[in-house]
Write a structure and sequence with these properties.
The protein contains 9 helices and 16 strands. It is of the alpha+beta class. The two termini are 27 Å apart. The structure holds pyridoxal-5'-phosphate. Pyridoxal-5'-phosphate (PLP) is lined by residues 35, 192, 194-197, 214-215, 217-220, 253-255. Pyridoxal-5'-phosphate binds at residues 35, 192, 194-197, 214-215, 217-220, 253-255.
Length: 299
């Protein structure tokens, strides 16, 4: 059986799904997006992902042509259709990409002349390249390029205009091919990774940047919720590289890997250079919450 995708009202075989070369996704990078994952084949926080998608659609003035409720419904139906293509212990991504639709060169980019292009697909979640970082921790590196300021593009709009993130990640990987970037804002404060949020542990307290300069990540939200349940204090605040150099623990959060420890920051060990106990406690609590052993599954 072949995987199916949802393409603007139609369900078609993935390999046959086509969009125009004049789509505003291609012409302008004018696309909002969401990536949700499943745990044990059940979607995690799908309603919240779709709610964030509809906020992004509103702010970017894209009319998806279907309601939030319908979006949830067609997404669940697509997942159900595709689940037989996944193995028992294999989970998947559910990705939404919605562009403003056709944008012939020279057309007024502010008007949506036709239907939006609504693309929903599922893909196997392969975390094998991340797996070793759960035990070894990764190397976090600050690239030279800074995050696009919220005054230009609010970081809370989850969008596919990814050139700045891509270049920043390349710069981090020029330092160390295994590095994961931690992008600073124009004031030198820690912002985010190209696809994740940042946390530190300092004197028993969790700290993470405010959403003034980063996406309001749903994994970030999950860590904040788990911390409250575990009675771990957590503060949303400005952080500078100094705070990361001197932290006891450092980790990234994102939908696919949930929590990714970093044991090195710009070449220096974080804390004692080992994956920290608070990071492991949070990973265990998350695994408990979803009934899937996140590290075991990745490994
Ligand atoms: C720029 C950026 N920051 C943070 C995140 C993490 O968000 P979430 O936890 O909702 O996956 C993502 C996810 O793709 C992202 O693209």
């Amino acid at each position: 059986m072949q995987r199916q995708v949802y393409l603007t009202g139609q369900v078609v075989v993935e390999s046959e799904a086509k969009i125009s070369i004049f789509d505003s996704a291609v012409m302008l990078g004018d696309t909002v997006t969401e990536s949700t994952r499943t745990f044990g084949h059940r979607p995690f926080k799908l309603e919240q992902h779709i709610a964030r998608l509809y906020k992004s659609l509103k702010v970017t003035r894209i009319d998806a042509g279907i309601s939030e409720e319908e979006m949830l419904h067609v997404t669940l139906r697509l997942l159900e259709t595709n689940l037989p293509t996944y193995r028992e212990h294999e989970d998947c991504w559910i990705v939404h990409n919605i562009s403003r639709g056709l944008s012939i060169a020279g057309a007024d980019p502010t008007s949506q002349s036709g239907a939006a292009t609504v693309m929903i697909f599922t893909q196997p979640m392969d975390l094998s390249s991340w797996a070793k970082f759960y035990t070894e921790g990764c190397h976090a590196v600050t690239p030279m390029s800074r995050i696009v300021p919220a005054q230009s593009l609010d970081a809370r709009i989850k969008n596919r205009s990814r050139m700045s993130y891509t270049l920043a990640e390349m710069e981090a990987k020029l330092v160390d091919p295994q590095a994961q970037g931690i992008i600073l804002d124009i004031h030198g404060n820690v912002a985010e990774n190209k696809g994740g949020n940042i946390f530190i542990v300092s004197d028993g307290k969790l700290k993470t940047p405010t959403t003034k300069n980063c996406l309001a990540g749903l994994s970030r939200e999950t860590v904040i919720q788990l911390a409250a349940e575990l009675e771990i204090p957590c503060e949303e605040t400005e952080l500078q590289p100094y705070d990361l150099y001197t932290a006891d623990e450092l980790f990234f959060t994102s939908t696919p890997y949930c929590i990714m420890p970093a044991t090195k920051f710009n070449g220096l060990p974080v804390g004692n250079g080992q994956v920290g106990s608070m990071t492991l406690r949070l990973l265990a609590a998350w695994s408990e919450l979803v009934g899937v052993y996140i590290v075991d599954q990745a490994q």
